[in-house]
Design brief:
The chain is an alpha+beta fold. Helix content is about 40%, strand content about 25%. It binds adenosine monophosphate. Adenosine monophosphate (AMP) binds near residues 195 and 338.
Length: about 600
């Protein structure tokens, strides 16, 4: 029997699950642990170690032990996040040939997907040992807020590990799936996911028919447990400097020991009120005398050191609710995911903000892998029993658009749009005799293009020489079910087309992005005025509003007959199709639907008048 495994590829730990006889089980590794450290090391003898084996030797082999590769995946060498990791990591990060990031292990430079692939291969192996046969397919999870490059790189990592990644799904969505699957519930839930390196929050509607619809999502791919550890490290380093005038950061081995001690203290402070951090012989003074580090950290002090980090997550949660158009009271349950949610301040802050205690039913370290396994099995078994059917409707976390004349961002796919989706718009040239246009693909919420992240660019050339505004170019953005973006541009006159799967320019510095935008301005396009479409859209929305208002009344009158029920279904169908036509910016379809809506509305009015 073909199996699909679900892998939660975490910053700190990874977890693998599989569905057996209709239930998802988390698979323990050889040591009996259900999670495996996302760590990779190379020994002096050239042996590769992954997971617990890598973690166990990290202190004595700090330079050749990689952790938190997920913080680097899909990022460019120049990005501020990579700079931050490079300045604190105990292993070496170097610039790759394409401005990408390489990690050196015993002199050999590896790409980040290669390192992540070693972790994925280990998870594959754990599953294979348990199942007793080879596994080829996997669903791998990523933070909802991962951008296109990070998703692509994760997929690449799967391929390098010898896995066919049949779907990439968002971690909070996977958690919601694990929470709601097979429970026949109908409710609105918030998933708060604070892991080792990333924070995500999603609001979902779970329907009894197996539909999991994400309404909004937000997050920060650079906020997680490691930042909490860093605060403790800073506190220790500063204290030590005040006392001895020595900067412990300069010593890799000391740094690795500090990192370990900080994380351990943090974890312990979730259950005790005070911990003693004790690191004998941490460094030697200039006079060859060994120095020790010994300090006591209380939970209250630790909470003070990290209060702003927790507050940041609460602010993001507030924003997500607003984006969903919901109030705190509308949230019927909260699912906590990720090891960091065991920190009492985190749990308290979430409970206080939402005014309810989080759900206790799910295991924060395992739910994501379980959700991935459920989705994997549902994908394999598309026409299985309806009890197993799941429909995941996820959304795109950030607005996708392109730069238009004036350096403005023109949104094509707004944030929180259900994926997969495709949207097109027609643009015109912005200058006389402009024979080329440059499409700069951007992700972000600012109206100013240069404030957003540049995902990629390409040029459509060979346009006819004509006055500005005459030559028309149709640009279509597409996001597939993995959240991966592709863009097509078409010269409407000649039919000449150009398309790309967006990759590999993200993570540039602000200055580089500004320079690229600046050089692209000459090739910018203008948005084509589409007043007709806008007017028709307003008409459609007005009609849909009226129809919805009358819907209950009409159902009461005609819902008793087959004929009546059929008419109601048809009305709903017309409204759905109208929404799709609006979403796709499909003028012809919208025109048709407006006519259908008018007929429906007249019929509804007639029914109500007679009743
Ligand atoms: P995850 O990426 O979900 O595996 O989360 C791992 C993060 O959770 C790491 O930063 C851990 O240090 C942290 N963590 C694990 N257990 C605890 C705990 N009991 N209290 C606080 N943080 C924890």
């Amino acid at each position: 029997m073909e199996k699909v495994i679900g892998i939660d590829l975490g910053t700190t730990n990874s977890c693998v699950a599989v569905v057996e006889n209709g239930t998802a089980v988390v698979i323990a590794n050889r040591g009996g642990y259900k999670t495996t450290p996302s760590m990779v090391a190379m020994t002096e003898a050239g042996k590769r170690l992954v997971g617990h084996l890598a973690k166990r030797q990290a202190i004595t082999n700090a330079e050749n032990t990689v952790y938190s590769a997920k913080r680097l995946i899909g990022r460019k060498w120049n990005s501020p996040q990579v700079k931050q990791v490079a300045s604190t990591a105990s292993y070496n990060i170097v610039e790759g040939p394409h401005g990408d990031v390489r990690i050196s292990l015993r002199e050999k430079a590896h790409s980040v997907p290669e390192v992540s692939a070693m972790v994925l291969a280990e998870m594959k192996l754990i599953a294979e040992e348990y199942l007793g046969h080879e596994v080829q397919k996997a669903v791998v999870t990523v933070p909802a807020y991962f951008n296109d490059n990070q998703r692509q790189a994760t997929k690449d990592a799967g391929a390098i590990a010898g896995l066919e990644v049949i779907r990439i799904i968002n971690e909070p969505t996977a958690a919601a799936l694990a929470y709601g699957f097979g429970r026949n519930i109908d409710r609105t839930v918030a998933v708060y996911d604070l892991g080792g390196g990333t924070f995500d929050v999603s609001i979902l509607e779970i329907g009894a028919t197996g539909v999991f619809k994400v309404i909004s999502t937000a997050g920060d791919t650079f906020l997680g447990g490691e930042d909490f550890d860093s605060r403790v490290i800073d506190w220790l380093v500063e204290g030590f400097r005040d006392e001895h005038g020595i900067d412990l950061r300069k010593d890799r081995m000391a740094l690795q020991r500090l990192k370990d001690a900080a994380e351990k203290a943090k974890v312990e402070l979730s259950s005790v009120r005070e911990v003693e951090i004790n690191l004998p012989f941490i460094i030697s003074s200039g006079r060859n005398e060994a120095l020790h580090l010994q300090r006591v950290l209380s939970r209250t002090d630790f909470e003070q050191l990290t209060a702003d980090l927790v507050q940041k997550t609460v602010d993001i949660m507030r924003q997500t609710l607003e984006d969903a158009g919901l109030h705190r009271e509308d949230i019927e349950d909260v699912v906590l995911v990720g090891g960091m949610t065991r920190m009492p301040l985190v749990e308290r802050s979430v409970a206080e903000f939402l005014g309810r205690e989080p759900s206790k039913g799910v295991h924060p370290d395992e739910v994501v892998a379980i959700g991935a396994a459920i989705q994997g099995s549902a994908l394999l078994d598309d026409d299985g029993p309806s009890a197993n059917r799941v429909v995941l409707l996820d959304v795109t976390p950030q607005t996708l658009g392109m730069m238009v004349a004036g350096g403005l961002m023109e949104p094509l796919i707004p944030k929180d749009t259900t994926v997969p989706t495709a949207r097109g718009k027609t643009f015109t040239t912005s200058r006389d005799n402009q024979t080329a246009v440059k499409i700069l693909v951007m992700q972000g919420e600012s109206e100013q293009a240069d404030q957003n992240e540049l995902l990629g660019e390409f040029i459509l050339t060979g346009l006819r020489r004509a006055p500005a505004g005459v030559v028309e170019i149709e640009v279509t953005f597409e996001i597939n079910a993995d959240g991966i973006v592709s863009v097509h541009a078409k010269d409407l006159e000649t039919g000449k087309e150009q398309s790309i799967t967006v990759t590999a320019t993200s993570g540039l510095t602000r200055e580089e992005i500004e320079a690229m935008i600046d050089s692209g301005k000459e090739f910018a396009v203008e948005r084509k005025r589409d007043e007709e479409f806008e007017a028709r859209k307003q008409e459609a929305e007005g009609l849909m509003h009226e129809i919805e208002r009358l819907f209950d009344k009409v159902s009461k009158v005609v819902g008793g007959s087959d004929y009546g029920r059929d008419a109601l279904d048809k009305a709903q169908g017309v409204m759905e199709r109208t929404k799709v036509a609006i979403d796709r910016h499909d003028a012809a379809a919208l025109k048709e639907q407006v006519e259908a809506l008018s007929r429906t509305f007249r019929m509804f009015k007639g029914v109500v008048a007679k009743a």
